[in-house]
Amino acid sequence: MLKEIKEGLYEEETFHLLAQTFKALADPTRLKIIYLLAKSPLCVHDIADLLDMTQSAISHHLRLLRNLRLVKFKKEGKSVIYSLDDDHVLQLFHQGLDHVKHD
């Protein structure tokens, strides 16, 4: 039985990427950004206004989220619009929220 469990382990890189994802989601500002992007695609300026932060700070958080494929962007003229990369990101957010709100 232990042999089967060991053979079923994912590659080390998979665990590393998963840990990086949870680490990124451990930041309250990044969770707020994910919450906002779940409501609507937004540009850096709008996110900064909504969170009362600088555009530079928001850009830093978005870069990390983008590198982990949690958010994506598209250019619309001179604007860069961010959105959640896929439904899995929203599921992670909601699962975590359900967990902390569970009695």
How would you summarize the topology of this molecule?
Layout: H1 2-7, H2 12-25, H3 28-39, E1 42-43, H4 44-51, H5 55-67, E2 71-76, E3 79-84, H6 87-101
Antiparallel strand pairs: 1-3, 2-3
Helix pairs in contact: 4-5
Describe this structure in words.
The protein has 103 residues and is an alpha+beta fold. It has one domain: Arc Repressor Mutant, subunit A (Orthogonal Bundle). The chain has 6 helices and 3 strands, in the order H-H-H-E-H-H-E-E-H. It has a 3-stranded antiparallel sheet with strand order 1-3-2. A hairpin with a 2-residue loop joins strand 2 and strand 3. The longest helix is centred in the last third of the chain and has 15 residues. The N and C termini lie far apart (35 Å).
Keywords, please?
single chain; 103 residues; alpha+beta; Arc Repressor Mutant, subunit A; three-stranded antiparallel β-sheet; 66% helix
Quick overview of this protein structure:
With 103 residues, this protein is of the alpha+beta class. It is elongated. It contains 6 helices and 3 strands, in the order αααβααββα.
Architecture, CATH level 2?
Orthogonal Bundle
How many domain regions? 1
Helix content: 55-70%
CATH top level class name: Mainly Alpha
CATH topology: Arc Repressor Mutant, subunit A
Rg, Cα atoms, Å? 16 Å
What's the story with the biggest beta sheet? 3 strands, antiparallel
Gap between N and C termini, in Å?
Answer: 35 Å
Order of adjacent strands in the largest pleated sheet: 1-3-2
- Range of strand content: 5-15%
Average pLDDT score:
95
Shape field: elongated
